[in-house]
Every structure is written in structure tokens, then in C-alpha cells.
Amino acid sequence: MSKQFDVVVIGGGPGGYIAAIRAAQLGFQVACIDEWKNDKGGPAPGGTCTNVGCIPSKALLQSSEHFEQAAHHFGDHGITLDNLKMDVAKMVGRKNTVVKQNNDGILYLFKKNKVSFFHGRGSFAKAVEGGYEVNVAGAASETLVAKNVIVATGSNARALPGAAFDEEKILSNDGALRIGAVPARLGVIGSGVIGLEMGSVWRRLGAEVTILEAMPSFLAAADEGVAKEALKAFQKQGLKFEFSAKISKVDASGEGVVISYANAKGEEQTLAVDKLIVSIGRVANTIGLNPEAVGLKLDDRGAIVVDDECKTNLPGVWAVGDVVRGPMLAHKAEEEGVAVAERIAGQHGHVNFATIPWVIYTSPEIAWVGRTEQQLKADGVAYKAGQFPFMANGRARALGDTTGFVKFLADAKTDEILGVHIVGPFASELISEAVVAMEFKASAEDIARICHAHPSLSEATKEAALAVDKRTLNF
Length: 475
Ligand code: FAD
Ligand code: NAI
Prior knowledge:
Layout: E1 3-10, H1 14-25, E2 30-34, H2 47-52, H3 54-73, H4 88-112, E3 115-128, E4 131-138, E5 141-151, E6 155-157, E7 170-171, H5 173-176, E8 185-189, H6 193-204, E9 208-212, H7 224-237, E10 240-242, E11 246-251, E12 257-262, E13 268-273, E14 275-278, E15 282-284, E16 317-319, H8 330-344, E17 358-360, E18 365-370, H9 373-378, E19 383-389, H10 394-399, E20 405-411, E21 417-424, H11 427-439, H12 444-449, H13 458-468
Parallel strand pairs: 1-2, 1-5, 2-3, 5-16, 7-14, 8-9, 8-14, 9-10
Antiparallel strand pairs: 3-4, 4-5, 6-15, 11-12, 12-13, 17-18, 18-21, 19-20, 20-21
1,4-dihydronicotinamide adenine dinucleotide (NAI) is lined by residues 160, 189-195, 197, 212-215, 245, 247, 279-282, 327-329, 359-361.
């Protein structure tokens, strides 16, 4: 017999589980179906983000940063260590514990909010009167019926043609997060977010890391000034980059992996590595969803077609997160999940794409919100720029990390903040002030007039806002 719900959510990543919780808060009977399995075959809700994305990558970034600090920077503080060692198995074990804490946390939240959780694969069966029938194939088979279905089935790593992931030598994000020992030579294809974060982890632990990037420029989505500063810092740390690389072959038949490519000058090159991470973007996932059964429309790249409100071509079927257009970020997925639940309840959920922050958790961290200087130029917007270096910030000096700067871009006439770009310590935390300011349509002067605690890194934000008017106080 089928089970009746008001809302069925397919996918328990940040888009799906948050949508389920919000819908339950609004008084709906809600089911959430997720198929992710832990190593014992049990449920592991949280999706890519919790299992093989945001959370485990940040755990490894933290461990490897501690090692880097102990190995190279503790000496500045008068701390000496003998026989410093890295136990990779323990580091990976700690990461797994952090992941499990998050999986368990989501299961607890489902209980707390009375969301019915089904562990298994959800697929559309058919449209029925007043809604849709969704099958669950897991330990037990179930049929659920609901008027509203929210699809949040996420994304998968894109493979390089002719180089399928074996997760032993050719690694997606999944394999990259569970390498058992530091590889002497690590290759990375793609100098995007995953390439930089994972490349940094293994470089800090002693791997020689070479990143091959197809584009001629570095981090094209970031502000050019920020990208330039970050590249300089990464190269100084020892990450090797090859831009305009055209990969022709990846051969994993021997001991390691040999990558053949043409460099920027068109010269044929080979790179031999022990392991290769391929991080060239991700593709929307609808595997097993059976969208054809109900006529759910996908675009030519496999993403579910939605409008600005996450409505699909079918009444009552919504889609959020990585499986639809827009940036593939956990917080974007969450915002869409909340907005859809509220729309189902007749409220006016809203996601402001103009103020979604981006963060890259390298060292230095990179974070931004709003438009870059190059975008403003291309859009013909008259703007003023203000920049303040962490070198001139007392807290950064005390921390021993003075790399980078905060940069403000404001409208030349109205002074409204159009973009804030940060490269440097704790950029991931500092960016929130800029997001709030932009949501409230603040001017650079508003930030410049707000009292910021001393000594704090946030003073660099205030000073960058002052710099828009050419009146920094400490530089
Ligand atoms: P997902 O998290 O992919 O969740 C989809 C879920 O649906 C999965 O559990 C899947 O098993 C399940 N599923 C799929 N099909 C079915 C089905 N038919 N039936 C049942 N279940 C199904 N973003 C950030 O904002 N910050 C970061 O620091 C960050 N770091 C990242 C690091 C890495 C290495 C990677 C790979 C990604 C990172 N991301 C980060 C991106 C972030 O993980 C995604 O944007 C986010 O997980 C998308 O959420 P989602 O809910 O749309 O999909
Ligand atoms: P990405 O889109 O960030 O970067 C991919 C890079 O690969 C680009 O620079 C691209 O030019 C390059 N590339 C593409 N094809 C190539 C080829 N054939 N040869 C060489 N280079 C090639 O994708 P990535 O790093 O795989 O990450 C996927 C997504 O996951 C990100 O876009 C982001 O949305 C999310 N993510 C977010 C994080 C965060 O918020 N901190 C961390 C990690 C991932």
C-alpha cells in the first residue's frame, strides 16, 4: 500500500534535507528519500557535501594546515618540535568521524522535525490524481504519493574522456578524500576549487603537486587582482601550475599515471605521477530518478529545467541545488530548499543570486560576493575601488599571516557596494559582513562608519571601505 505525504523530497543533501526540515516546520507531512550508504551499508544523509565534499575536505584542510604550521611556522613563535610525523590513516579516520557526526546530526534533525526518512533510491513511477507516485528501492520497497515532489539529487564529478575514475589512481573528489598515504607525485587536472583545495592538502603533507589547467588564466571567476595574489602565494608554497594545457591521453596501465598534453606553446609534454585527481567540474545527477515516467524536462546537459522559482515543467514538481542551473554550492542548494518549501506553503521564498558568497578554503583563503572589477568594466558600470592589505593590520601581524587584502568595489555615484573580494586569513568568515551589507544595499561609507573591534581582521574590511574614499587610517 502506498504512503501518503504532502511533500516528498528525493535526495538528502543540503538542498534536500533542508527543504524537508523547512517543509515540516511549515506543518506539512514530509518524507525524504536518500540512497547514500556509509561503509556498513547504513544511511548517510547529507549528500556530496557531508560525505565527499564540503565537510570532509575542510577536515583534511584543517589537519594538513596544522601540519604545515607545525613544520614551517611554529619556529617563528619559539616552538620547536622534533620528529614531526603525519599519521595519514589517523587524519583520514578523524575526517570519517567528522562526516559521521554530520550524518547522525541530520538523522536526529529528521526525527526532531518529524520528517519520515527512507533509505534507498527514489524514482518517479507515475502521475496520479492530485500528485505523483514515487517508488523507493532500498532494504524495503515502498511507494510514496505526494502532491509536491522536490528533486534534490545533486551532481557527480565529470570524468575526462578516456580516463574513467578508478578511485585508486584516477581519482574524483571521492578518492581524493581517502588517499591512504602521501603520494610522492600528485597530478591534478583543473585548477578550480577542488583542484586547489585537494592539491593544497596533499602538498602540505609532502606531495609534489602539479596542476594542469586548460584555460590560459587562473580562477577566471574571481576578481583578477585576487586571482593574481592567490596564484603568487600558491606558487611560493610549491604548487606547480601549467596553464593552457591540452590533455591528449591519460595512461594508467603502468605503476602510476602518465598524462600526455600540449603546453601553452603547443609542445608535447608528459607528466608522470603516482595519483591523479581529475577536478574539471561536475554534472547534474538524475541517475535512477526515472524522469521520463512523468515527463520531467532536462536540458541538453542533463540538468533539470527550472524557472527562477525552482518550478519544473510539471505542476507540483520542484528541483533545487546542483541538479539545476546556478552555482554548485551547498549554501545555494540550502537557500533554494528553504524557498521552495515556503513557496509550497504559499509564502514568498526568495533566493538572491547576486549575494551568494564564494569561498575557497586554501591558504590564503579566497572569498568574494558580488561583481568583480572585470565584470563591472565589461558591464560599463562606473565604480570606485578601495583596497587594504593585511600587512597593515595588527591582528594579521600577530597571527603571523599577512598575505593578501580586502578589496571593495562601490558604485561611483551612489557608493552602493557592488562587490567585495578578499584573499587572506579567515576570508571565509570575513565575507559574511560584506554579504549582509550588500543584502541591505549598504554603501561603502556605511561600513567605513561602523565600529569594528580592535585588533581584528575585520578592521581590514573597514579600512578597505575607507579606501574607496581614499581615506584609510592605517595605510
Ligand atoms: P548533493 O549534496 O549531491 O546531494 C544529493 C543527494 O541525493 C545524495 O545524497 C545522493 O545520494 C542522493 N540521491 C541522488 N539521486 C537519488 C535518488 N534517485 N534517490 C535517492 N537519493 C538520491 N560547496 C560549498 O558551498 N562549500 C564547500 O566548501 C564545498 N566543498 C566541496 C568540496 C568538494 C570536494 C565537492 C565535490 C563539492 C563541494 N561543494 C562545496 C559543493 C557542494 O557539495 C554541493 O554544491 C552540494 O552538496 C549540493 O547539494 P545538493 O543537495 O544539491 O546535492
Ligand atoms: P571548477 O569548475 O571549480 O573548476 C574546474 C577547472 O577545470 C576549471 O578551471 C576549468 O577550466 C578546468 N578544466 C575543465 N576541463 C579541463 C580539461 N579538459 N583539462 C584541464 N582543465 C580543465 O570544478 P571543480 O574544481 O571540479 O569543482 C566542482 C564544483 O564543486 C565547483 O565549481 C564548486 O561549485 C564546488 N566546490 C565548491 C567548493 C567551495 O565552495 N569551497 C570546494 C570544492 C568544490
